[in-house]
Amino acid sequence: xxxxxxxxxxxxxxxxxxxxxxxxxxxxxxxxxxxxxxxxxxxxxxxxxxxxxxxxxxxxxxxxxxxxxxxxxxxxxxxxxxxxxxx
Length: 87
Hints:
This is Transposase. It comes from Caldicoprobacter faecalis. The chain has a two-stranded antiparallel ribbon. The protein is mainly alpha-helical. It has helices spanning 3-20, 24-31, 35-53; strands at residues 75-79, 82-86. It has a domain at 3-53. The relative contact order is 0.08. The chain contains 3 helices and 2 strands, in the order H-H-H-E-E.
């Protein structure tokens, strides 16, 4: 079995475990796998989810044209030491 196939197999097992409502021990006994293996793959998936969650992504902003903003109010957005002026 290739590494990718093993990952897919465990991803399916984890989904089945979460949907089952069973304890880890009961699920593992029912599916003839060790609790240690289930813990390992749950942890591995958790780390992968954290890495995905922590990835910063920026979206492009398209401006249709230059508009006169001299008479508009300004919204200051402060995040930590950074300040963003939205006009």
